[in-house]
Amino acid sequence: MRPDVLFWLLFTSCVSLFGLFISAYLVNKAQKAGDQRKARLLSVSHPKKPARTVHISAFTPTRRSRSRSLTSTGAMIFGLDLQQVGHYRLPWWIVLPATLGAAKLAQLAAHGLVGNASYLALLAAWVILSRQVFGWMEKRRKRKAVVQLPDILDQIVRAVRVGMPVLEALRVATRDAPEPSRTEFVKLVDQVSFGTPLEDAVAAMAQRCNLPEYSFFATALSLQNQTGGALGETLLNLADVVRKRVAIAEKGKALSSEAKATAIVLTALPFMAGLILWIMNPHYMGLLFDEPLGHKMLAAAGISLGLGLLTIRMMFQRALSLT
After folding, report:
1. How far apart are CA 111 and CA 101, in angstroms?
2. Closest to 205 (Cα-Cα) out of 223, 224, 195, 192
3. Domain range summary for the chain, segments of one domain joined by +
4. What are the DSSP calls for 56-108, one per residue?
5. Are 112 and 293 in contact (CB under 8 A)?
6. Which CATH architecture group holds 143-254?
7. Phi/psi at 305 (nearest 5 deg)?
8. Mean pLDDT, the chain, integer
9. pTM of the predicted model, to two decimals?
10. For residue 3, is pLDDT > 80?
11. In what helix (H) or strand (E) does residue 163 lie, and over which residues does it extend?
12. Mean predicted confidence (pLDDT) in 126-137
């Protein structure tokens, strides 16, 4: 098959995939809006009943969370969480075309080394780049939410100890809370104000945030609302635990700075050595760019370097992750 025909086939496939993704996202958004309207009508027509048994829903996955739709599955391939679209620093409709353009540039650069085989890696590079960008934004949001949670818990405890109801304490803590925590607590207060039971509202917030600290917070509120108890003492202990986790992670980050510097130096060494050899003997280094065997060696070196960097990055993230 001719290269130009193969290129247009791949380009058409990518455009069709992107259009299908947009259509599925819009349909899913309309369905979610309809489900929310139905849930509000049901909550108004069926008032809250006192719970007879203790039920902790923050750690119990619902049927909807267990079975993902086709749209969410396709979005997760690119690392996009549809429930957190509003929290991303960059809109998804900017990230996906930008990463596709970057993948296309990488494919054009690799075409001279590996030939038509570079077209096969275009879609894979698009998916990998998209997952990296969305993953970076999601981890940044989660880290901010974890760091901000202890201060919010302290405000709730102070409000509860002076005699305020739990809902009013949440509303007071929401006023001064920074983003992204403020948005989640505003949703929580609004849902309870519109008639949603507190247990369901805090469980939904814990599932949206997808953080163990928020799940424990939801459990504490649910138990206190159903059985009573010392809510202030529980939230103070939770705030202390979260602060200690953040401090340990920061200490580990400081101790790993030397290892990160070593990884940067090791990554730069092949490029520095190649530049020096190019200056000293251009003909010797030119064989890598002129001969087919040299192209294969460069491709193998690039793949090895990329796998090494990915392994180091995964080790750092697993060791220093707060989530």
Report:
1. 15
2. 192
3. 143-254, 256-323
4. --TTS--HHHHS--HHHHHHHHTT--GGGGGG-SS-HHHHHHHHHHHHHHHHH
5. no
6. Up-down Bundle (1.20)
7. -65, -40
8. 79
9. 0.66
10. no
11. none
12. 90
